[in-house]
TrEMBL record:
SUPFAM superfamilies: Cytochrome c. Residues 1-20 form the signal peptide. This is Cytochrome c. The keyword Protease does not apply. Keywords: Electron transport, Heme, Iron, Metal-binding, Signal, Transport. It holds the Pfam family Cytochrom_C. It comes from the Bacteria. Residues 21-118 form the Cytochrome c domain. InterPro entries: Cyt_c-like_dom, Cyt_c-like_dom_sf, Cyt_c_1A/1B.
Length: 118
């Protein structure tokens, strides 16, 4: 009986938004990012193709803040979710002034979309 209770508790602990993340919906959420970020070339912010799995602040052709370069972050679901909630809270001293995405579903969808950018 205990094994079932533990299994159910573990499943319940998985965020629902992450289980149902939708890259197509994330592409729509990405419209909020387009003022600064593009795919394929740098804009005000660095390009985001290949961001998933990349070390933060590591593109050679973009001038990142020292804070981000020294952050030690590698972009994955957890680090992107935390970052997208408020970059300046996550890495004080970053140049990214975005207030953050408050909706967990929007963040999960955006992350799912970012994974598709190669």
């Amino acid at each position: 009986m205990r094994k079932w209770v533990l299994a159910i508790a573990m499943i319940a602990a998985v965020p629902t938004a992450a289980m149902s993340a939708d890259a197509d919906a994330g592409k729509t959420v990405f419209n909020k990012c387009k003022a600064c970020h593009q795919v394929g070339k740098n804009g005000v912010g660095p390009h985001l193709d290949g961001v998933f799995g990349r070390v933060a602040g590591s593109l050679p052709d973009y001038n990142y803040s020292d804070a981000l370069k020294k952050s030690g972050i590698t972009w994955d679901e957890a680090s992107l979710d935390k970052w997208l909630q408020g970059p300046a809270k996550d890495v004080p001293g970053t140049k990214m002034i975005f207030a953050g995405l408050k909706d967990e579903g929007d963040r999960a969808n955006l992350i799912e979309y970012l994974k598709t950018l190669k």
